[in-house]
């Protein structure tokens, strides 16, 4: 079954672009999901440990406070970066479709109009390349900050358990 782009058939090469784009979006969706889950886990840690009845907030050391703050910020940055990646990939795909339409339509135009279309296509290629670079950086930031946030949350949670254990043994 042939797919169409307006009145024109879509080349097979574009189908491959769509498959790759879908895989990247699935990856950034997973990063976004894990980042939001991390924010919820940090909230759980705050609500059930720090704000629990009988827990003296003054006994929380600076490392734990710093760890919770860093993990929350890193999860937030990871979520934001994953959303930026998703936006850039979809926008880049729309620019790619526009360029493909121009290329196909250019065969039906006069030489002067072909030149104008090629000039527009060059400008759009620059925009498309910019979106690609932004999406690449956003994906790296999303994955890196997710790893940092997860590590900080695990270390912080371990520190809290250790401090609670010390408090229990001292009483």
Quickly describe the structure.
This protein has 3 helices and 2 strands; from the N terminus they run ββααα. The chain has 171 residues and is an all-alpha fold.
Write up what this structure looks like:
The chain has 171 residues and is an all-alpha fold. 84% of the residues lie in helices and 2% in strands. The protein has helices spanning 12-50, 62-106, 111-170, and strands at 4-5, 8-9. A two-stranded antiparallel ribbon has the order 1-2. Strand 1 (4-5) and strand 2 (8-9) form a beta hairpin. Helix 1 (12-50) runs antiparallel to helix 2, helix 1 packs parallel to helix 3 (111-170) and helix 2 packs antiparallel against helix 3. It is rod-shaped and about 90 Å long.
Number of helices: 3
Query: SSE string, helix = H, strand = E?
Result: EEHHH
Largest β-sheet summary: 2 strands, antiparallel
Distance between the termini: 74 Å
Characterize the overall form: rod-shaped
Give the averaged pLDDT, no decimals: 83
Could you give the order of strands across the largest sheet?
1-2
What gyration radius follows from the Cα positions, in whole Å? 25 Å
How many runs of DSSP E, i.e. beta strands?
Answer: 2
Class by SSE composition: mainly alpha
Helix proportion: over 70%
Taking pLDDT < 50 over at least 5 consecutive residues as the criterion, the unreliable ranges are: none
Strand proportion, as a percent range, falls in under 5%
């Amino acid at each position: 079954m042939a797919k169409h782009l307006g009145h024109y058939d879509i080349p097979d090469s574009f189908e491959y672009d769509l498959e790759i784009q879908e895989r990247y979006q699935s990856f950034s969706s997973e990063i976004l999901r894990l980042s939001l889950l991390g924010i919820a886990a940090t909230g759980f840690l705050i609500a059930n440990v720090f704000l629990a009845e009988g827990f003296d907030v003054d006994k929380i050391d600076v490392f734990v406070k710093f760890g919770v703050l860093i993990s929350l910020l890193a999860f937030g940055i990871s979520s934001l970066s994953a959303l930026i990646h998703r936006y850039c990939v979809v926008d880049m795909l729309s620019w790619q479709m526009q360029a493909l339409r121009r290329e196909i339509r250019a065969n039906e135009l006069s030489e002067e109009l072909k030149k104008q279309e090629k000039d527009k296509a060059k400008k759009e290629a620059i925009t498309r390349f910019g979106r690609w670079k932004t999406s690449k950086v956003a994906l790296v930031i999303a994955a890196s900050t997710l790893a940092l946030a997860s590590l900080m949350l695990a270390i912080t949670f371990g520190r809290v358990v250790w401090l609670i254990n010390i408090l229990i043994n001292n009483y």
